[in-house]
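Support request from a user on the community tier.

User writes: "When I paste my structure tokens into the form, the page sometimes reloads and wipes my input. The last time it worked, I copied everything first. Here is what I submitted, just in case something in the input itself triggers the reload:"
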């Protein structure tokens, strides 16, 4: 499985997580009972499908190896395996958080490198 996974997150929600020292998830995560993540190859489609046209987003890179047994790879969109975290995200597993600006075409620019 991928060593680095990604969370797309509104900047204000991420700032709240930084202030509290952990990320408990976005409203959709609370509704589903786990924190949704994407792999590098899934992130662009996730952004287009669930965050189209939204500004003020961050792409948060997470070291999947630090998440332990709470991280599950489960079948989701199109039969692909997606990483789901069944616990709060400990911010010590976060590698970086970078802005996802909207391009002129309305699609997000993903800072994966």
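"...and here is what came back when it finally went through:"
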């Amino acid at each position: 499985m991928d060593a680095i996974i990604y969370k797309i997150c509104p900047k204000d929600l991420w700032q709240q997580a930084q202030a509290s020292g952990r990320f408990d998830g976005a409203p959709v995560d609370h509704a589903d009972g786990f924190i949704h993540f994407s792999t590098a190859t899934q992130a662009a489609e996730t952004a287009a499908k669930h965050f189209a046209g939204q500004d003020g987003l961050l792409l948060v890179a997470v070291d999947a190896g630090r998440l332990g047994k709470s991280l599950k790879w489960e079948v989701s969109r199109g039969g692909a395996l997606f990483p789901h975290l069944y616990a709060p995200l400990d911010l010590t597993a976060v590698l970086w958080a970078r802005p996802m600006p909207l391009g002129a075409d309305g699609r997000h620019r993903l800072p994966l490198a």
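Agent notes: The reload is a front-end session timeout and is unrelated to the input. Strands lie at 4-10, 22-23, 35-36, 57-63, 71-75, 81-85, 89-90, 94-99. The longest strand covers residues 4-10. Escalated to web team.
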